[in-house]
Amino acid sequence: MSAKASVAPDKAERMPPRERILAVAADLFYRHGIRAVGVDAIAETAGTNKMTLYRHFASKDELVAEYLRQSAKGEAACWERLNAQHPGDALAQLRAWLKEMFGHVVSRDERGCPLANAAVELPEKDHPARRVIEECKSATRDKVIALCRAAGLKEPELLADELGLMLEGARVTAQSVGIDGLGARLDRMSEALIAAHAPK
């Protein structure tokens, strides 16, 4: 999923300190990278100080983990919305999810998946954010497998992996090569993969 857009200054002033710090950190981490943003910059941009930041988050690592938990909640909300839009139609939910993900990939306002970006920046297996990343990515894979299975598609685990790898590769391509024509290619590729797993 994508990160939230920048918080408007007037809205930020009305937020409780913890929410304001988290919103500012999410925006800065997503736009500039986790390693590039320090707690001083977060506190200053949030209109607070480091003491207040550390009162709400024990460390920068814990702040990063919470930022990613919020991103994971956005993913869960997406599935709920798609289920409500296409009740009982697993294939329609799968296609709607792919369309939404492709929209994020080709958006000029976004720079990839916050979880995937964080995974690249945080190779330490004991970092508190790693568990958040792994749990969210695994939950997404499990959901896609379930939809593929419910849609009667063959080898649902393999199809879920193929779609997931295509999507992750597309995110990298968008950042490194550009997005021209990428959305249309993703549509064609995903439909070809789904068709290849359709029951004969």
Would you kindly provide a written description of the structure presented here, covering whatever features stand out?
The protein has two domains: 9-57, Homeodomain-like (Arc Repressor Mutant, subunit A); 64-196, Tetracycline Repressor, domain 2 (Orthogonal Bundle). It has 200 residues and is mostly helical. The chain has ten helices and no strands. The two termini are 33 Å apart. Helix 5 packs across helix 6 (90-105), helix 7 packs across helix 8 and helix 8 (128-150) crosses helix 9 (156-176).
Helix- and strand-based class? mainly alpha
CATH fold-type name of the largest domain: Tetracycline Repressor, domain 2
Radius of gyration: 18 Å
CATH hierarchy, class of the largest domain: Mainly Alpha
Biggest beta sheet summary: none
Task: Extract low-pLDDT stretches.
Answer: 1-5
- The CATH fourth-level homologous superfamily of the largest domain: Tetracycline Repressor, domain 2
Discrete helix count: 10
Features of this protein?
200 residues; mainly alpha; Arc Repressor Mutant, subunit A; Tetracycline Repressor, domain 2; 2 domains; 10 helices; 0% strand; elongated; disordered N terminus
In short:
This protein has 10 helices and no strands.
Map the helices and strands.
Elements (H helix, E strand, L loop, with lengths): L8 H6 L2 H16 L6 H7 L4 H7 L3 H26 L4 H16 L8 H8 L6 H23 L5 H21 L5 H15 L4
